[in-house]
Amino acid sequence: MFPGRASIIVLAALIQGLVPAAPAAGQPLQSTLEYSVKANYLVRFAAFVEWPAQSFATNRAPVVICVVGRDPFEGALERAARAQTAHGRALAVRRPATAEAAADCHILYVGRGGDSLIPAGEPAVLVVTDAAATANRGMIHFVIADDRVRFHIDLQAASRSRLSISSRLLNLALSVRGG
Amino acid sequence: MRQFRRGAAVAAFLVLPAVAQAEEAPAGAEAPIATARQLGFGPGDQDLTRLSLEELAMVEVTSVSRRPEALADAAAAIFVISNDDIRRSGATSLPEALRLAPNLNVQRVNSVDYAISARGFNGYETSNKLLVLVDGRSIYSTLHSGVFWDARDVMLQDVERIEVISGPGGALYGSNAMNGVINIITRPAADTRGTLISVGAGNRDADWALRHGGDLGGSGAWRIYAMGHRRGESWDPAGPEANDDAEGTRAGVRADWRAGDGRLTLQGDVFDNQVTINENLLGTEAHVRGGNLLGRWSAPLAGGELQVQAFWDRYERDEPDTLEKSETWDLAVQHAMEIGRHRIVLGAGHREVDSHLTAPPGGPFLDPPDRTLTLTNLFAQDQIALGGGVTLTLGAKFEDNSFSGPEFLPSVRVAWQRPGGDLLWGAISRASRTPNRIERDLTLPGFLVGAEFRSETATAYELGYRANPLPRLSFSINAFYNVYDDLRTVSATPVTLLPLNLTNRGEAETWGVEAWGSYDVTPAWRLSAGLTALTKDYDPTPTLDDLSGLISIGDDPEHQLLVRSQHDLTDTLELDVRLRAVDDLATVDGYVEADVRLGWRLTDQLELSVTGRNLIEDRHVETSDPLRGRAFGRSIFGALQVSF
């Protein structure tokens, strides 16, 4: 057995369908999987969070998932969002360059260095932070616990932004702060 | 007769109720380190976009050596009780929390004793086909192969999840996993940093728990906890209070480290519980005490992962004239690896149990009083991804026990993960339950002699289907057909009738269906339901081959229905309602009961709750055990929990 080879086989089985080509040599495989999981979480969150009706311009407006700061997903977010729906709406992925533009997102993932692009004034945006990128906690904060991607939820902050979070999501959280 | 309701007294009832009446004083009377993850089937060509939220949370992301597997992919009837489910149930003891699993039948016997089983055979003395693990440590007793639930508890606030598998556990689990496995997994110390204080009291019970945890250098974490309980009296079915109140304390520590590529866990607990026996007289204090230590080390090896686990467990039941002790040493090693399409797990384990029973004079006793039991196993499992979402798992276990020798237990499982994300699976497994001390060594001169009792065996056929057809709806349906052989019987000696022997002349077939599902009516309101149906086909006629009429088959409800509503009324108020409807037993009427909990999160650190239990009937009885069975009525319990 070749340890290195076996490892790649393991991961190849997993990420098939997510990554069109085999991962390039030297690419950090673990983090690819880690961020694929996080990307899929961001997409799933859309169905388990409810926004105020006025957050959507029209009945057909998509749920907008945004990334600010460094984008760690390498396309995984687009692949995860493709052909998915939430609340009967399509999903769209954007990368706003200003905090004003970020206020139009529904879900905002804050990558490294993106803290300054979190919109002020508590608009109805689900702010998702990542322990890998920042210590500041948003409404949902990704952490790695027991080798798995898990998260903490700040229900207080979500309520202030008039978001309601499904009990199914709360059940999965490592901790739920306030309400 | 009622005075001997516990451990040692198991002996009397086992033999024969009819004979017990004739006797004036009939008294005196496995688990390698596998987890459900390993039992399960690899997701094969898994596409993360098809995973549900819960499944995403199970994907291992940092361990490159193993193929991440989600419980949802396991080719077995698995129900998972989450930490939040336990919290919202208002349960304050482990057996009460197990009521959340639709694939278990939980019969509360008295204030602290329970009979818990899957797929039949339930009863305080007959529920002996379940393997129960706490963080990989087996807790069933080698005295009677059941679990003494009055001695086994955990701090529920720190439980990560409880995996309940109905059906044989497969090659990776021990031989007692004949009808099911309960795998209790506590949180890693890293997830329990900080302080938690919980106190609660009601008209029957009182509980408290303290826990504190922190970091251990840069690469580890620790916690320490202490907890205590007081259980109020139950009711004699005839009316008066049963005088069976109990109390106890438990404390423990856990530390987890990461050293290089390896991970090390050390944990241990001690407990001292006081229970009441002879309760229909004045009531005599008895104690159940014990402790355990467990170490587990895992590290990458040869493209896979090696895990080594050792534990020591001591248990002692001290009653007037009776002392039951057991001391268990267990070592288990397993190696999981990937070779192409194969995921292979190889393992071996060895256990020694020093068992002792001092029986009261004049009654049955164990001959010899002291015995060392050994249990050795070797197992192999190959999980093969056949493509098209189909996974084949072949397992085999070779087990040798000091009572009845070697056994070979093979199993075959097939899972088909369909393109829509639903899973269809089937399994055929051979399972066995090894003899226990009572079955081999129980002696009453002239009346009962220790016999050549062998293992009970079963062949189990299972089919299951689970799906998530709508984002808010998920369900699971499992059907089983089990053929049992060599079940425990009580045989007469030809011509002279006496002495009696415990023999393996029982046969039975059981079949049934388990179904459960949940639906999120709104993001704040989840409804769940679970239903089991069970049929047992056996011959209950007493014969000279079996004077007991196969009493070892247990007494189970044919149907059981659980309904649960988890509703977040506001951001801070949660209302949980649980209903359970349990069918008739042989001599006990069925019942319908409701538990209601109202929880209020005042701040993110402080939570208050009020739980009403058994709110429907004035009194109900859950077991048909004529000696031990007690009745339960309405109770109320308020609790306060602070964490910071």
Walk me through the structure.
The complex is a heterodimer of chains A (179) and B (644). By secondary structure, chain A is α/β, with parallel strands linked by helices. Chain A has one domain (3-177): 3-Layer(aba) Sandwich (Rossmann fold), CATH 3.40.50. Chain A has helices at residues 3-15, 29-48, 76-81, 99-102, 155-160, 167-172; strands at 49-50, 63-68, 85-86, 89-94, 107-110, 126-130, 140-145, 148-154, 164-165, 175-177. In chain A, the strands form 2 sheets. In chain A, strands 3-4-2-5-6-7-8-10 form an 8-stranded mixed sheet. Chain A has a two-stranded antiparallel sheet with strand order 1-9. The longest helix of chain A is centred in the N-terminal third of the chain and has 20 residues, at 29-48. Helix content of chain B is 6%, strand content 55%. In chain B, the strands form 5 sheets. Chain B has a 22-stranded antiparallel β-barrel. A 5-stranded mixed sheet of chain B has the order 1-6-7-4-5. In chain B, strands 2-3 form a two-stranded antiparallel sheet. Chain B has one domain (7-643): TonB-dependent receptor, beta-barrel domain (Maltoporin, Chain A, Beta Barrel), CATH 2.40.170.20. Chain B has 7 helices and 33 strands. At the A-B interface, α1, α2, β1, β8 and α5 of A face α4 and β15 of B.
The total count of helices of chain A amounts to 6
What radius of gyration of chain B results from the CA coordinates?
24 Å
* CATH-defined fold name of chain B: Maltoporin, Chain A
- Using the coordinates above, name the CATH class of chain B: Mainly Beta
Uncertain regions of chain A: pLDDT < 50 for 5+ in a row? 1-31
**Chain pair with largest interface:** A-B, 56 and 54 residues
Number of helical elements of chain B = 7
Number of separate domains of chain A: 1
Shape of chain B: globular
Strand fraction of chain A = 15-25%
Sketch the major β-sheet of chain A. 8 strands, mixed
Structural class of chain A: alpha/beta
Taking all Cα atoms into account, the compactness measure Rg of chain A is 17 Å
Kindly state the number of beta strands of chain A: 10
Shape of chain A: globular
* Residues in helix, % of chain B: under 10%
Distance between the termini of chain B: 50 Å
* CATH structural architecture of chain B: Beta Barrel
- For the record, what CATH class of chain A applies? Alpha Beta
